[in-house]
Design a protein that fits this description.
The chain is α/β, with parallel strands linked by helices. The chain has a single domain, classed as 5-stranded Propeller (L-arginine/glycine Amidinotransferase, Chain A), CATH 3.75.10. Helix content is 22%, strand content 24%. A three-stranded mixed β-sheet has the order 2-1-15, covered by helices on one side. A three-stranded mixed β-sheet has the order 3-4-5, covered by helices on one side. Strand 4, helix 2 and strand 5 form a beta-alpha-beta unit. It is globular, with a radius of gyration of 17 Å. The protein binds citrulline.
Length: 254
């Protein structure tokens, strides 16, 4: 169960955030409304939500998930794989000191963004992507081992982050789309397949027996609901325009 989440209010500079989406510029006012609704939903799921102030210096800093991996035993500060995001870790490290005694940090030449890391119990899958390299993932696996956990690598071919295309919903259920449907390492999961035309919904999050999915993906909703989950739809179109999904918008703590 999660007890707490950390989020960061988007700044107006989000309009110059990184994107490959081709969906146009985000509407800032709408993004603020959607972000507030996201916080409300996390609270409904029983989380105490800490809201960090917007930081205009970093256009993508609302995507807090990428800058730290939180486990039951330790926090691992990542090393974002793109220069405009590299400074985001400084403040998050200070914030996490309030919650963790054990804090580790990825060093150069490693790069890692935690959108590439999926937790399955005490095992962590690490996507090797344009934002996470083998050196960085290797450092994370060593930290995990130090605290009695484990990790393994998954090669990505097409998507930005591992969790862009795959999400673990507990009880051995794995939501997956595209290249992840056939990956050898995921074949022992019960795969809940998301169609290509709804692939954005493959980034969803399990929060204390509820599953948050993006609004507007009826087939994905049906698939996940029929596996027995209570679904909450959240509208995050303005973050989708920056390649961000539901998971990227929070750090969830135990
Ligand atoms: C970026 O390119 O870094 C941001 N525009 C989106 C980050 C999304 N984060 C995630 O998938 N974990």
């Amino acid at each position: 169960m999660f007890n707490r989440a950390i989020v960061r209010t988007p700044g107006e500079s989000m309009l110059s955030g990184l994107t490959t989406a081709n969906l146009g510029l985000p509407n800032y006012e709408k993004a603020l409304v959607q972000h507030a609704e996201y916080i409300k939903v996390l609270e409904e799921c029983g989380l105490q939500v800490s809201v960090l102030a917007k930081n205009e210096q970093y256009p993508d800093s609302t995507f807090v998930e990428d800058v730290a991996l939180l486990t039951k035993e330790c926090a691992i500060i990542t090393k974002p794989g793109t220069p405009s995001r590299s400074g985001e870790t400084v403040e998050i490290k200070k914030v996490l000191k309030d919650y963790y005694l054990n804090i580790e940090e990825v060093r150069e030449p490693g790069i890692v963004e935690a959108g590439d890391i999926m937790m399955v119990g005490s095992h962590f899958y690490l996507g090797i992507s344009a934002r996470t390299n083998e050196n960085g993932a290797g450092q994370v696996i060593e930290f995990l081992k130090k605290y009695g956990m484990s990790g393994s690598l998954v090669k990505l071919d097409k998507v930005l982050h591992l969790k862009t295309g795959v999400s673990y919903l507990e009880q051995n259920n794995l939501v997956a789309t595209g290249e992840f449907l056939t990956k050898e390492e995921f074949q022992n999961f019960n795969i809940l397949e998301i169609a290509d035309d709804e692939s954005y919904a493959a980034n969803c999050i399990w929060v204390n027996d509820r599953v948050l999915i993006p609004k507007g993906y009826p087939k994905a909703r049906e698939t996940i609901a029929s596996a027995g989950y209570s679904i909450i739809e959240v509208d995050v179109t303005e973050f989708q325009k920056l390649d961000g999904g539901l998971s990227c918008l929070s750090l969830r703590l135990f």
